[in-house]
Write a structure and sequence with these properties.
Blueprint (H helix, E strand, L loop, with lengths): L9 H10 L6 H11 L4 E4 L6 H12 L13 E4 L3 H14 L8 E4 L5 H8 L5 E4 L1 H9 L10 E4 L2 H6 L3 H9 L6 E6 L4 H10 L4 E4 L2 H6 L2 E7 L3 H12 L7 E4 L3 H13 L4 E4 L5 H12 L5 E4 L1 H4 L9 E4 L6 H8 L9 E7 L4 H11 L4 E3 L20 H5 L1
Parallel strand pairs: 1-6, 1-7, 2-4, 2-5, 3-4, 5-6, 8-13, 8-14, 9-11, 9-12, 10-11, 12-13
Helix pairs in contact: 2-3, 3-4, 6-8, 15-16
The structure holds adenosine monophosphate (AMP).
């Protein structure tokens, strides 16, 4: 299948050709025709599947027709949980709309000064990309006019709810015209996301992409048992010096540990930097740009900060600490093996982490193979978890 088989405007086909995208990804193949036909969509797809294109290509196409209503407010609102994701969505918007120069976009996110965003909002805007907090802020100052709004996208809705944005999201939506097309994208469609989607969407069509499994085929997953922090540090230092380990994201469970580990890596001579939620936006943007340019080799990150990191050619993801939830594991390792490339996910664990390993394996349906590095094997004896169905009673213990 090629993009020509969809009814996309020539300017968008030209932008796709300029980006070098030949075939739609599975989520794009399924979502684009339905969105073009005006349906509400509830899609389960991870980052790395091409989901941004899946909602941008058809929504931008619909914006090529003039608005039936007067005004200068946004016709398309894309709500995202984090600043990084907002900026990536904005970049992709610019990429896909480069031959549609009359379409204007604005991005409103927290952590950066108001002035530039206010200036943009004072001009006509077709596409607004926003995080909920700053948007509510601007709405409170009467800077947002939703009278022309035709389409709403909720991107990474599960994360939005995890981050406590349910109330702001509901508040924002209550101010929108009820006659609109709503598209919800989420890694999972269960629990609170399902409840929210039932409230917001009108007869939605469900699209499920089993990307975890498909995507993981390109990612080798390995487990290293460790004796403790000092052992983890030695393993990491060794791995970072190995051949083919070019661009790495190391995940820790706390911001403080991310800072400490970065200092430790810098002291050992590694080109490392940290990315977490306490950093100023300008610093985060600069760090990501340095990573993209290859000036930084190792990015030490926490889960929230990692959301939406779209740096190509990440060769390795290292779980210095295993995440508490299997969904976070899938998000973390999805930073590598993107757009068809091969990747490696290495996880450090202790015997106490076996329940987490089991939980992840049962979620992904894949085994994380234990391995040892010569000269760095653990002193303690470790028992890899047996491959059984995960039992909840064991989790609580
Ligand atoms: P996303 O899941 O939206 O974060 O996209 C993952 C990456 O795939 C991004 O770098 C996109 O620019 C890229 N991408 C999106 N659609 C395609 C496509 N059809 N072919 C190749 N790469 C794509």
């Amino acid at each position: 299948m090629t993009f020509d088989s969809f009814n996309l405007p020539p300017q968008i086909l030209k932008a796709l050709a300029a980006a070098g995208y030949i075939e739609p990804t599975p989520i794009q193949s399924k979502a684009i025709p339905k969105i073009l036909r005006g349906f509400d969509i509830r899609a389960s797809a991870q980052t790395g599947t091409g989901k941004t294109g899946a909602f941008l290509l058809p929504t931008l196409s619909r914006l090529t027709a003039p608005s039936p209503k007067p005004g200068k407010g946004p016709r398309l609102l894309i709500l995202v949980p984090t600043r990084e994701l907002a900026m990536q969505v904005e970049q992709q918007t610019l990429k896909y709309s480069r031959f549609l120069p009359h379409l204007k976009s604005a991005c409103v996110v927290g952590g950066v000064p108001y002035s530039a965003q206010l200036r943009k909002l004072s001009k006509p805007c077709d596409i607004l990309i926003a995080t909920p907090g700053r948007l509510i802020d601007f709405m409170g100052r009467s800077k947002i006019d939703f009278s022309r709004l035709e389409m709403l996208v909720l991107d990474e809705a599960d994360r939005m709810l995890d981050m406590g944005f349910l109330e702001p999201v509901e508040q924002i939506i209550s101010k929108m015209p009820s006659e609109r097309q709503t598209l919800l994208f989420s890694a999972t469609l269960q629990g609170s996301v399902k409840t929210l989607s039932e409230k917001l969407l009108n007869n939605p069509m469900d699209i499920v992409i089993h990307q975890e499994k498909a995507n993981h085929e390109q990612i080798s997953q390995t487990l290293y048992y460790t004796d403790g922090l000092e052992h983890k540090n030695r393993l990491l230092d060794h791995i970072l010096k190995m051949e083919g380990v070019d661009r790495i994201i190391v995940f820790t469970s706390t911001k403080r540990h991310a800072d400490e580990l970065t200092d430790d890596l810098l002291a050992k001579g590694h080109r490392a930097a940290v990315l977490h939620g306490d950093m100023r936006q300008r610093q985060r943007t600069r760090t990501l740009a340095q990573m993209k340019q290859g000036e930084i080799k190792v990015l030490v990150a926490t889960d929230v900060a990692s959301r939406g990191i779209d740096v190509e050619a990440i060769s390795h993801v290292i779980n210095f600490d295993l995440p508490r939830s299997p969904e976070d594991y899938v998000h973390r390792i999805g930073r590598t093996g993107r757009a068809g490339a091969k990747g490696s996910a290495l996880s450090f664990a202790s015997n106490r982490d076996n329940f987490l390993v089991k939980k992840i394996e049962s979620y992904t349906g894949q085994k994380i193979s234990p391995s040892v590095i010569e000269g760095l094997s653990p002193k303690k004896k470790f028992n890899a978890p047996q491959r059984k169905r995960f039992s909840r009673s064991r989790e609580r213990r």
